[in-house]
Amino acid sequence: MRALLPTGDPQTLTEPGEVDAPAPRPDEALIKVTDFSLNRADFLLLNSPSSTYRPGIDAAGVVEEAASDGSGPAAGSRVVLHLPGGGAGAEYVAAAADRLAAIPDGVDSATASTLPLAGLVARRMLALAGPLQGRRILATGVGGGVGQLLIQLAVAEGAKITAVAADGQPTAHIAALGAEIALDIETVGGEPFDLVLESVGGELGSKAAYALRPGGQYVWFGQASGDPISLDFFRLLQGGTSLTLRHFVYSDGSRDAEDMAALLALASRGKLRVEIGQRGDFSSAGPMLKEMSAGRLRGKAVVSID
Q1: Arithmetic mean of pLDDT, 276-283
Q2: What's the rounded Cα separation, in Å, for the pair 284 and 287?
Q3: Is the per-residue pLDDT at 275 higher than 90?
Q4: Quick one: how far is CA 117 from the chain centroid?
Q5: In whole angstroms, what is the distance from residue 175 CA to residue 259 CA?
Q6: Are strands 160-164 and 180-182 parallel, antiparallel or unpaired?
Q7: Contact call for residues 146 and 69 (beta carbons, < 8 A)
Q8: What is the pLDDT of residue 253?
Q9: What domains can you pick out in the chain, each with its CATH number?
């Protein structure tokens, strides 16, 4: 069967190739993939000459063979799947019931394929932050898949969110979802923020901490710049800022199916929208990942298999 394979070349990243079809375990269904989305994690794991990582964390398709132990969806069901270890960028994949969720009517497969990783991160991070009604949120690095879902979920819960974007980065889609846009964190006005959601690192991520109110919460969920944050204890002390710093990790495999079903339900009711910035085939995956890594991709990237 065809699958996306690593090239070991940071310039091309991936290429289509032939691999053996999966042999499902008794608790796994065999899925014929129709669409899979690309994530920044795919780029990071591929961007090494020695990488053996097969891209594809999130996908949608049709159950070709149901799990022989009777668990999970029946044959013919449309499903979305989440494989944290990759490998979903292929014509067929095997996945257990706790990694699958049925796609409701009204949600197309391409859209469904964009929801798992981005949606799980956004949903679980906001749950960690606690009640959001009336809270002011400052978010960095939210121009991609996680950001657009994060903004919608936060706004729906009554939060006011400001997104810090780099000059030249697409922002119209972020503003349309209800976020205020700031192009320079130094010029962010108004009252201090209750919550910072930070995924860029470096100078921007470091400065974001000083925008918090005393007792505010700083949730760190990425480091897209590759540079670590640096906090100045004395600056925080002199400014009277006390804060809680939390490192967020999204993984909780036991709840993947439940949380994906909740995200799909919101999408089916028109409460959650996903902008797909680029679509392509196997040969387009490498270039789309490069655009994503450079911050030039608006929304999500989806590969369709035909």
Answers
A1: 93
A2: 6
A3: no
A4: 5
A5: 26
A6: parallel
A7: no
A8: 58
A9: 2-114+274-304 (3.90.180.10), 118-247 (3.40.50.720)
